[in-house]
Structure formats: structure tokens, C-alpha cells
Amino acid sequence: MNTPAHIVINLAVLGRKDKPENNIPIAIGAFLPDLPMFLFYAYEKLWQKTPEWTIWSESYYNPSWQDFFDIFNSIPLVAIAGLMAYYFGSGRLVALFASMGLHSIGDFPVHNDDAHRHFFPFSSWRFESPFSYWDYNHHGRIVSFLEVVAVIVCCIIICRRQPSVKSYLLTGSAIAMYVIYWGYAVLTWG
């Protein structure tokens, strides 16, 4: 899934009306598994001046980059961190790590040859799904459409659960990020 979709879906699934203080940690937790990807892309594109095709066909598959991505997408590492946060009584960190875990679970069925090792460092196994959130050769158009529908539904859920300026700004920001991302994707990748 695209990062803004993770944020909106995680807020709809994990957010609670009686715990609005967890919304920011949930949003951060939804973003963190993709942070290495943003850093990777910025480094390759802006610093190294790597061509777009090379970034996604070669650089992305470099073992060092893969390790960096997979640390943040490791379900066992996130679960261990979440249990530690629970043990020490940090509800906000529990929410953050639960959101990171939900992000990884959400990615699991929609990554094909770009799949993460969700059990890293304990296993190098990758589930290569027959579906992809972006690759049209693996039903990307259908998955992308379903993702957009899920985002719209989740935005409605969030705004109805907590009708406030903050929730409207949060969902509006997520939708704006979504639009900016898709605009960039269309302009860059066609």
C-alpha cells in the first residue's frame, strides 16, 4: 500500500474515540516502515543522481538496502518492541508499534517481487503475493482502486468517530499526501 493509505487505514482501525492522544503515534507508526524507502529514494535520486529505472530495477534490490527496509518491516522486531512498550506502560508506544505491525500486515498481501522479509532477521523468507499495489502485471489496477476506496471509507470513519478540526485536518492532510504522491507517480513513472 501507499504510505498515506497506511496512515488513514491504521487510524481507522486502531484509533479510538476515548484515546485521541494515540492518533499521532498511530500515524507515525504507519509511516515508519516506509521511512527507509523515502531515505533510499532521496539518497539514490538526489545524492547519487541514479536514473529512475536503475533505482527500482537494481539499487532497490541491493542487499544492504533490503536489510534497511526489512528491519522496519519485521513483524517479530515490532512485536518485541511493542511488548517492551506494554511492559513499561507506554500506551503511546504500544499504539505506535501496533501501527507499525498493522502496516506490515497490510503490505504482506500486496507485494510481489518487491516483497519484504517480514520475519527478518529470523528468516529471509519473502511472501511473493500474486497481487501488487502498484504493478499492473499483478492486478495493480484493481488493488490500487480498492486501496482508494478503503482510504475514502476510512476517512469517513475517522471523521464520524471524532468530528473535530484535528480529525478533518489529519484526514485532509492524508488525502493531500495521497494526491501529491499520485501526481508525482504519474509525472515520474507515467
Task: Give an overview of the whole structure.
- It contains nine helices and no strands.
- The protein is mostly helical.
- The protein has one domain.
- Helix 1 (3-14) packs antiparallel against helix 2, helix 2 (23-31) runs parallel beside helix 7 (91-107) and helix 8 runs antiparallel to helix 9 (165-189).
Distance between the termini: 18 Å
Topology, number of strands: 0
SSE pattern, N- to C-terminal: HHHHHHHHH
Helix content bin: 55-70%
Number of helices: 9
Enumerate the spans where pLDDT stays under 50 for 5 or more consecutive residues. none
Overall average pLDDT: 93
Shape: globular
Number of domains: 1
What is the makeup of the main sheet?
Answer: none
Work out the strand percent: under 5%
Helix/strand class: mainly alpha
Radius of gyration: 17 Å
Brief account:
The protein has 190 residues and is mostly helical.
Question: What are the SSEs and their pairings?
Answer:
Elements: H1 3-14, H2 23-31, H3 35-47, H4 52-57, H5 63-72, H6 75-87, H7 91-107, H8 140-161, H9 165-189
Helix pairs in contact: 1-2, 1-7, 1-8, 1-9, 2-7, 3-5, 6-7, 8-9
Jot down its keywords.
single chain, 190 residues, mainly alpha, 9 helices, 67% helix, globular
